[in-house]
């Protein structure tokens, strides 16, 4: 369990909700420390942790199922204020003597909430939009509880026992679709619990540094450093905690953007005190990728070779026959929840597999350290700045693991990679010059593989077409094409055809996601 530098602590009981960590994050947004714990934690364990408040998350199960996750009833007798959402609302009801039934109609998405009163809704309108996601519903509230809100479908959308300081809602205050959700959280944390806004990212840095150092002890740690924000933050944290006990392995496959290998080496050899290994594998990758045109085959080759290079370094680091004990990874919370909530007792529904969570090959054994697995991307960026990482790494754009290989349509060779690298550098430079870099969330160039006739000087050319891809998005699940001003597009196009050899045409990708993906391969 985490050591908190503040006397205040909110425990989030995780029943396997897709939004479980989002609750903890919303609490941290209000400058109150929070951490997530398994839903089957005992009341004695909770008492020992001395929380200021408890929040019960949602979950995918039905409370009436035989194998449904339960909560220790004694938790409600600790005298600690409790707030429950969705499944947390229902499990509170059945645990304390109420009933939950399966109505004929479920409720998914936005709903109109009718508020009848209650401390939780202080300062919010009598009618407000909330986000629902349920089929089961509370039918009879436990003794001592009052119904304080309802919808046309859900008669008990919120209930409270003000004497025991237990408050629950069927809807999700933690999601932004609930218009007064943050105010409801404020009412609970500050109005009901009497907490103060006294937690910051600096507190987190100290806590995480101590935890990292305590876990590792005198052992060695190895980290695959890509130069992306997640692995870079772990590297910076490890450097702060254990210094040269950590080895950062940077595998250069020759498919990175202009200047990136040099930037990564500069930061992690001069700014941070870690053992840095730069593996120059450019020639090996070029040989393996020669003639390969299928996108998934490119990804497979690059990923397989990456681990071969990485584990070769790990073996070289053995001292006196003692292997490196820990592998540090930049796994963040969305990676965990999309892969089935490995750290929430396997209670969350699996959405998709993720590369950081694939089991190791037979015979390869490390203990994992994943210090970022409770945090979202923007929190990781804030942590990186607090650790002293430069802004150009913290705000580095998303970049695929296979690198520029999947921005070259068809077969990859050094000449084509050079075209993409040079054109991409021009695009990024001009977007920055136009002060658009904060407004466009991802932008890059693609070598389309299409060749066309052109005229340069007085000569006929037959050269490549480069596509510009730029998108705006909140979550990268959906995206719109960015409306780059035509004057800026004109400058980018002119520079690319004038400065990048073997390019005579530039086109602009104006497709949303869906139907297209952001990357072309």
Task: Characterize the structure shown.
The protein is of the alpha/beta class and 521 residues long. Helices cover 31% and strands 22% of the residues. It is built from 14 helices and 20 strands. The strands form four sheets. It has a nine-stranded mixed sheet. A five-stranded parallel sheet has the order 14-13-12-15-16, with helices on both faces. Strand 12 (221-224), helix 6 (229-242) and strand 13 form a beta-alpha-beta unit. Helix 6 packs across helix 11.
Shape category: globular
Measure the end-to-end span. 41 Å
Q: How many H/I helices?
A: 14
pLDDT < 50 runs, ≥5 residues: 1-5, 337-359
pLDDT averaged residue by residue: 88
Radius of gyration: 26 Å
Strand content: 15-25%
Features:
9-stranded mixed beta sheet; disordered N terminus; 5-stranded parallel beta sheet; about 525 residues; alpha/beta
Summarize this structure briefly.
The chain is an alpha/beta fold and 521 residues long. The protein has helices at 20-29, 43-49, 87-95, 181-192, 201-216, 229-242, 260-271, 282-289, 295-316, 333-338, 377-386, 391-394, 414-433, 486-499; strands at residues 10-14, 34-38, 53-56, 82-85, 99-101, 107-115, 127-134, 137-140, 146-150, 158-161, 166-169, 221-224, 246-252, 275-280, 326-328, 367-369, 442-456, 459-472, 480-481, 503-508.
């Amino acid at each position: 369990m985490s050591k908190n530098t503040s006397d205040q602590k909110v425990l989030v009981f995780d029943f396997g909700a897709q939004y479980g960590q989002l609750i903890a994050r919303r609490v941290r947004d209000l400058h109150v420390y929070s951490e997530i714990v398994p839903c089957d934690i005992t009341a004695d364990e909770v008492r020992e942790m001395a929380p200021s408040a408890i929040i019960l998350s949602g979950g995918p199960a039905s409370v009436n199922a035989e194998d449904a996750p339960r909560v220790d009833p004694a938790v409600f007798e600790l005298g600690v204020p409790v707030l429950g959402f969705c499944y947390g609302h229902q499990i509170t009801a059945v645990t304390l003597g109420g009933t939950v039934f399966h109505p004929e109609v479920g409720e998914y998405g936005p709903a109109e909430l009718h508020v009848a009163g209650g401390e939780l809704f202080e300062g919010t309108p009598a009618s407000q939009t909330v986000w629902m996601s349920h089929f089961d519903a509370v039918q009879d509230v436990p003794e001592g509880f009052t119904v304080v809100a309802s919808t046309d479908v859900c008669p008990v959308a919120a209930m409270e026992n003000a004497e025991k300081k237990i408050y629950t809602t069927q809807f999700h205050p933690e999601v932004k679709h609930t218009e007064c959700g943050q105010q409801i959280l404020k009412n609970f944390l500050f109005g009901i619990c009497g907490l103060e806004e006294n937690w910051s990212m600096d507190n987190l840095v100290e806590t995480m540094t101590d935890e990292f150092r305590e876990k590792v002890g005198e052992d060695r740690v190895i980290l695959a450093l890509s130069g992306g924000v997640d692995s870079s933050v772990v590297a910076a944290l490890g450097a702060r905690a254990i210094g040269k006990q950590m080895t950062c392995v940077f595998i250069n496959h020759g498919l990175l953007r202009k200047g990136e290998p040099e930037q990564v080496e500069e930061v992690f050899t001069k700014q941070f005190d870690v053992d840095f290994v730069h593996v120059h594998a450019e020639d090996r990758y070029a040989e393996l990728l020669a003639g390969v045109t299928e996108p998934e085959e490119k990804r497979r080759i690059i990923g397989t070779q990456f681990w071969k290079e990485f584990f070769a370094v790990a073996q070289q680091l053995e001292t006196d026959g003692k292997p490196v004990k820990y592998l540090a990874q930049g796994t963040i919370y969305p990676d965990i929840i999309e892969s089935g909530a490995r750290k929430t007792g396997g209670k969350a529904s699996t959405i998709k597999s993720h590369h950081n969570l694939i089991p190791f090959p037979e015979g390869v054994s490390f203990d994992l350290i994943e210090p970022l697995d409770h945090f979202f991307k923007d929190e990781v960026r804030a942590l990186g700045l607090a650790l002293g990482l430069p802004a150009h790494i913290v705000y580095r754009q998303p970049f695929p693991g296979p690198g520029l290989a999947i921005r070259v349509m068809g077969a990859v060779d050094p000449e084509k990679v050079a075209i993409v690298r040079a054109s991409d550098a021009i695009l990024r430079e001009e977007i920055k010059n136009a002060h658009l870099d904060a407004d466009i969330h991802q932008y890059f160039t693609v070598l389309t593989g299409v060749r066309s006739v052109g005229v340069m000087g007085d000569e006929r050319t037959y050269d490549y077409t480069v596509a510009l891809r730029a998108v705006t998005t909140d979550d990268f699940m959906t995206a719109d094409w960015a409306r780059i001003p035509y004057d800026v597009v004109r400058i980018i196009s002119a520079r690319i055809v004038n400065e990048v050899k073997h390019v005579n045409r530039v086109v602009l990708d104006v497709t949303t996601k869906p139907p297209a993906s952001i990357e072309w391969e």
